[in-house]
Model the fold of this input.
Amino acid sequence: MTASDNNANTGRKKGRLRRRLIYGGYLSVVTLVLLEIALRIYNPFHFRLKGDRILLPINQRETIVNRINPKLDPVIINTRNSLGFRGPEPPKDWGRALTVITIGGSTTECHFLSDSLTWPYLLGRRLAVSVPGCWLNNAGLDGQSTFGHILMLNDHVKQLRPSVVVFLTGVNDMETDRPSFHDKLYERGAFPDFKHWLFNNSEVLNLGLNLWRSMRARRFNNTTNSMMVLDSVRRLVLPALVVRARLEAQEPYLEGYRRRLSDLADTCLAWKIVPVFVTQPDLFGFGRDPVTGADLAAFPVESGVNGRLLWEMLERYNDVVRSLCAQRHLRMIDLARLMPKNSLYFYDMSHFTNQGAAEVAGLLAPTIDSIFSRVPGE
Done:
């Protein structure tokens, strides 16, 4: 075979490769366009975020069949009102009503508890006894950190001007020194405008982004229908040096957490809303579980972390809430110290059972009730 023949064969191979690449690119573009059209016609994925906007489900009712966790009801009803929150419709005479909105992550939303069994609903019922006409809605979203709470407050809550906003924060901010993609997008200029526009307007990109978010949300047990089985045998004893190193590693994250809490407080106060901060409770930390006998300090909650270490890490973030509220004279409820460590009240390390939600409502009610007597204009 001559050199010219070799050159001709090489040219033909390059031509076939080029045609295949062009065809592959063309097929990918056509597939994406068709998928975009299909998702715009019907999107079975009910994600709550699109780009930098929280998309609240309006007037929706979801029936959840639970076959995983015996601590949860077998059938769970989750309903959203015209505001996209859980709870009753807003009062007609809003300006004269005492109104409360709760903001937090999955421990506030209580996605796997039926509407009438969540702690915000039960808190609202308790408050209505002493404050007739009191209205409370639940704006919690599964997996949200304080970055997302700022987005929720600015996009959906502050314009309503509720009397009080209750923030339950902590667990989703652990070891978070920068916002995730969806959290960061609330900052003007955080991403190039074109990328911002793409994620706000493409159903395909939004689908991929939210699937990625779902995987990220699994960190620190933010998927709330998992099952944790306690027993009195399993133990994980950690060397003191390991515990100290992990606790010291929290320090870089705490100042940012404090700034975000201050931002939430500043926004509320600027809009004449009373902010109330609640520390994050957890099943683990110390003592023995009254139900199972499990050692809540030594029980292994995840790889390389036992109950005591998890609790001491979380308490670093709770201490930020305590010190900030003391320094700025903000209202604070120390639920982390009030809530009993009892697996009757938790179905995993952080999330509440029906009984736990009732306990939380009972612990929060006296303080929230006393706040109403000092709400400006009331």
The CA atoms of residues 24 and 95 lie 60 Å apart. Confidence is low (pLDDT under 50) at residues 42-51, 181-191, 216-225. The radius of gyration is 25 Å. DSSP finds twelve helices and eleven strands in the chain.
